[in-house]
Amino acid sequence: MNIADLQQPKEGDARMNIADLQQQAEEMVEWLAAYGADPEGGVTRLLYTSSWIEAQQAMDRKMRAMGLDTYYDDAGNLFGRIASEDPEAGTILTGSHVDTVKCGGKYDGAFGIIAGLLALRYLKETYGPPKRNIEVVSLCEEEGSRFPLTFWGSTNITGTAPTDHIAQIRDSEGIPFVEAMNKAGFGLGHYRSPLRKDILSFIELHIEQGAILEREQTTIGIVEQIVGQKRLTIECSGEANHAGTTPMGWRKDALRGASQMIVAIMEAADRRGAPLVATVGKIEVEPNVSNVIPDKAAFTLDIRHPQGDVLDAFCEEAVAICFAAAQDRGLQVKVNQHLDVRPVGMDASLLRSIETICQAQGLPYRLMPSGAGHDAQIMAAHYPTSLIFVPSHRGISHNPAEYTSKEDLAAGVQVLIRLLYELGYEKETIS
């Protein structure tokens, strides 16, 4: 099955031409974006909120309407399944995450679910039951936008979720993680255990969230490696005092100390150079009053690099910078690391298969790293995994302006259909 099969199906095949596929992909992106549409622009679907629940329920209905068997696990991951006639057959899994950042774009995560759904419907209608089960998953969480944890969906599937620590986790409004999960209907034992032992491979289709493919006029990115990343929160404590009566030299200004740390860390990142990146994305100040010297300042630090040793070394350097600045300003500092994801390579055999598919379908492609974290990096430690990119206009993501053309969306689905066909219907064994 190549691009011609979609344009001119064999007798008895489901009739889906490229124009139909483009329209369906575009329409489904808009359809899913309506769940969590934010008045401030973009889409906001945070884990276990009402918009998240509505989106998962709508996706459940859509999966069933397209002829898939559906089920949830106890973390809130939703699956749609084409069952094999062999009850002992393993599972080929595709999909991505349904949660978003606040005021995020329509495509991040969502496209991978939609592509999987379109691919599974085509395969089921065209070829019937596969040799191995094929499933699409709407993963419950990846972004870490509501609670200080990430990859909750995929870490539950792989058995690596930080379940011992969730009792202490709260969101910005003080709502406990477990309370939010239970209120949404999960974590109560009503659904099957998330842990999976039957997955033979995981395929994630995603927008690039960068500008490389568009600038190079390339349709498909085949990811060789996902960078490692660390996320830290640095908390500075000083002394609140009167802004008008306290001389500059006597102050224990937590915000000034935090500012000194941030500037020094960014300068250190500049010295290291590409591909290392460091980002301060959130700052909180107390008492946050114009005429009071801040006694508390906290900021987040996100550090990424494709080499684990470089990542570790720069993280150590950044922490040392913080303690030196605190000492210089007479402050107390506390560093909390809440994410440490190692660089991970994608499966070489799947990579070669995707290359062959792109060549057969005449789709321009390139091999590339991923600078963003994805569920594929969690899955790759446990199952053969691949990550496939389609272009992002101007590289914009985590933003309402996020956009991928319907032509590129459809091209990604074409590649996914062929890969799932090979893995689910053709190959006798999965290595």
Task: Please explain how this structure is put together.
The chain is α+β, with helices and mostly antiparallel strands and 431 residues long. It is 36% helix and 22% strand. The protein is built from 12 helices and 16 strands. The strands form 3 sheets. Strands 1, 2, 3, 4, 5, 6, 14, 15 and 16 form a 9-stranded mixed β-sheet that branches. Strands 7, 9, 10, 12 and 13 form a 5-stranded antiparallel β-sheet that branches. A two-stranded antiparallel ribbon has the order 8-11. The longest helix has 22 residues. The two termini are 22 Å apart.
What characteristics describe this protein?
globular, 431 residues, alpha+beta, five-stranded antiparallel β-sheet, 12 helices, 36% helix, nine-stranded mixed β-sheet
The number of helical segments is 12
H/E element sequence: HHHEEEHEHHEHEEEHEEEEHEEHEHEH
Helix-and-strand structural type = alpha+beta
**Which percent bin holds the helix content?**
25-40%
Fraction in beta strands: 15-25%
Give the integer mean of the pLDDT values.
94
Fold blueprint:
Layout lengths: L2 H5 L10 H16 L16 H16 L3 E4 L5 E5 L8 E7 L12 H18 L5 E7 L12 H7 L18 H7 L15 E9 L4 H4 L4 E7 L1 E10 L3 E2 L11 H19 L4 E3 L3 E4 L5 E2 L2 E10 L2 H22 L2 E10 L2 E2 L2 H14 L3 E6 L4 H5 L5 E6 L15 H21 L5
Parallel strand pairs: 3-4, 3-5, 5-16, 6-15
Antiparallel strand pairs: 1-2, 2-4, 6-14, 6-16, 7-12, 7-13, 8-11, 9-12, 10-12
Give me a quick take on this structure.
With 431 residues, the chain is of the alpha+beta class. The chain has helices spanning 3-7, 18-33, 50-65, 110-127, 152-158, 177-183, 212-215, 254-272, 308-329, 348-361, 375-379, 406-426; strands at residues 69-72, 78-82, 91-97, 133-139, 199-207, 220-226, 228-237, 241-242, 277-279, 283-286, 292-293, 296-305, 332-341, 344-345, 365-370, 385-390. It contains 12 helices and 16 strands.
